Amino acid sequence: MRLLVTGGCGFIGSNFIRYVLQHYDPESITNVDLLTQAGSLHTTADLAERFGDRYEFIRADIADRGKMNEILSEHCYYGVINFAGESQVDRNTVSAADFIYSNVVGTSVLLDAAREHGVKRFVQVSTDEVYGSNESQVPSLESSMLRPSSPHSASKAAGDLLALSYHKTYGQDVVITRSSNNYGPYQFPEKLIPVTILRALANKPMPVYGDGLQMRDWLYVEDHCAAVFDVLMSGVSGSIYNVASGVEYNNLDVVRMILKQLNRSEELIRFVKNRLAHDRRYSIDSTKVRKEIGWKPLHEFESMLARTVEWYRINEPWWRAVLNRGADPIYSR
Fold first, then answer.
1. For labelling alongside 321, which of 43, 208, 239, 288 has CA 20 to 30 A away?
2. 96 plus 191 within the same structural domain
3. How far, in Å, CA of 138 to CA of 209, rounded?
4. Residue 328 domain flag
5. Whole-angstrom Cα distance, residue 123 to residue 294?
6. Strands (E), 37-166
7. Longest dimension (CA), the chain
8. Using an 8 Å Cβ cutoff, are 280 and 133 in contact?
9. CA 130, CA 152: separation in Å to the nearest integer?
């Protein structure tokens, strides 16, 4: 079985490649990544040495139709798993063009190329953000109305709808996963947890958007990777699967947990102007993937948060290398 993973030099994509190569025996995985802001070869530097010819990297743009056709014509791929796409949420309120190009045009090009070259299954990896803010007592179901709040989440919703349209129009084997907030190793240091860790390590002031009470479901990245692989192998064509831990914490409490673990004072916290279109709460129901596929999260938040803090503490060369590519961020999500 050969797999093609797009965005495999990013946070979730790289963890997915490691997870599959460590736990299963695919013939090979081809990683296609353009190496934009959040993608870095530092994140995948060990893969070729560890897994030899079972791992291949190609730098390419998923919206480049000629290149995607060229890549997919070289092997018979069982699946395309699309992690690619711009995810730097803060930047989408400045310019939406990059998000539309990658998340919409790129997804369309990939779907066409996968269909043309006989790829068995296309997995569109999406986000709970497409449902918009949910402050009710009823978590969003896969059938819930999409109410994206930002250009980023709107472009992800558009990619999802394109994928579903290809299933209906062409009979293409497509499945979609929508996950809650991920955390863990190799997350680009602009997201809440890694930014908090790095600022705490440096004893720097810590910006927290608004009042910090935005609620998020926190999912360890390996649990998400397991769900994506399970859906790849066992999901029903044309289906959507929400993936969530079922455990919610607000941003401020997460920041406080990290400060406590690193023995830093809460006086480092600085409340700053809220981000544009900052959703108050995401809440999704993952009953479907648990019942139909048999997936469930295996990791508990507080212990894995502690492990994540320790990972960033001892992997300073990695985060310094990726941060040197851009400015010191605040955080997203």
1. 208
2. no
3. 25
4. no
5. 18
6. 55-59, 79-82, 121-127
7. 57
8. yes
9. 9
Which DSSP state fits 101? Answer: I
pLDDT, average across residues 58-78: 97
**Are 175 and 306 in the same domain?**
no
Q: H or E segment at 269?
A: strand 269-272
Give a three-class secondary structure readout of 201-253. HCCCCEEEECCCCCEEEEEEHHHHHHHHHHHHHHCCCCCEEEECCCCEEEHHH
CB 65 within 8 A of CB 106: no
205 located within any domain = yes
Domain assignment of residue 253, given as a range: 183-215+247-281+299-323
Give the CATH number for residue 305. Answer: 3.90.25.10
At residue 105, the pLDDT reads 97
Q: pTM value?
A: 0.94
Rounded average pLDDT over 208-227: 97
Between the CA of residue 214 and those of 43, 146, 190, 332, what are the distances in Å?
A: 29, 19, 17, 12
In terms of C-beta density within 10 A (0-12 exposed, 13-18 middle, 19 or more buried), how is residue 79 classed?
Answer: buried
Note whether 309 and 258 are within 8 A (CB).
Answer: yes
